[in-house]
Amino acid sequence: MKVVCENIVNAVPDVVRWNSWDGEHLKTVHSAYTDPLLLVSRQNESLFIDRIKIPFLGLKVKTMVFTLQMDETTQVSYTMTPFFLAKNTIKLTEIEPKKTLVKVTYEFSGNLFQKILFPIHRILIKKWNGIVWKEDLPLKLRRQKALEYGFIDYFGLPDKLQDRNDISLIHKTELPVKRPSNIRETSHPFFIQQ
Predict the structure, then answer these.
(1) Residue 46: how many CB atoms within 10 A of its CB?
(2) Chain centroid offset of residue 53 CA
(3) Rounded to the nearest 5°, which phi and psi values hold at 141?
(4) What is the C-alpha to C-alpha distance for residues 43 and 54, in angstroms, rounded to an integer?
(5) Distance separating alpha carbons of residues 93 and 95, to the nearest angstrom
(6) Of the ranges 16-30, 38-52, 91-105, 166-180, which is most confident?
(7) What are residue 54's phi and psi, to 5 degrees?
(8) DSSP per residue over 156-181, as a string?
(9) pLDDT tens digits, one per residue of 32-91
């Protein structure tokens, strides 16, 4: 059981990768994420738990998501819900400078009953992807613009205008994304960061 969704954004692949690893935005930007808590945040891997709202149905379900950054353009996440185990693969392809194709492949394992319900599930996943994409898009575009102005994480913009050069084509996000201290998302007693 597989669903593929594709979107294009006017940003470099690194901006999309950064957005995927910026866990603090989940609750404030996305309507479906209600209570995200990081358990592990290490280079190229993370684990978080949450209660998400299912589109159309309004039900909240507990999830656990384990994410691996396989290389600079491929991310794989495994999501456990009460209903199924899902694998989603995000593949980033730069189709021209500052323009990226984002291909998300959702795969599901399930029993016969879940396979019978898959046509409904396919509709829900496409709706989910569309909602998440629309919610994330302004964040991605803002991040792209900030890098074009020479913004450096945790330092800001260079003071002099002549020093504000476009770094978007050379910037590489370091994983895990640095987080402010004492934030709710990292408050779980099991939280591990390296």
Answers:
(1) 23
(2) 16
(3) -65, -40
(4) 30
(5) 6
(6) 91-105
(7) -80, 130
(8) BS-SSGGG----TTT--PPSSPP--S
(9) 888 888 888 888 999 999 988 877 777 888 999 999 999 999 999 999 988 788 999 999
- Name the DSSP class of 29: H
CB 129 within 8 A of CB 148: no
Name the residue ranges covered by the structural domains of the chain. 2-185
Q: Which amino acid is at 68?
A: L
How much is the average pLDDT of 114-126?
Answer: 82
Prior bond to 119 cis, omega within 30? Answer: no
The pTM for the full model equals: 0.86
Among 3.40.50.300, 3.40.720.10, 3.30.530.20, 3.20.20.70, name the CATH number for the domain at 2-185: 3.30.530.20
User: Which amino acid type is present at position 187?
Assistant: S
Contact 103, 93 (CB under 8 A): yes
What totals of helices (H) and strands (E) does the chain contain, helices first?
A: 4, 8
Residue 152: band (very low, low, confident or very high) from pLDDT cuts 50, 70, 90? confident
Between helix 13-21 and helix 118-148 the angle, nearest 10°, is 110
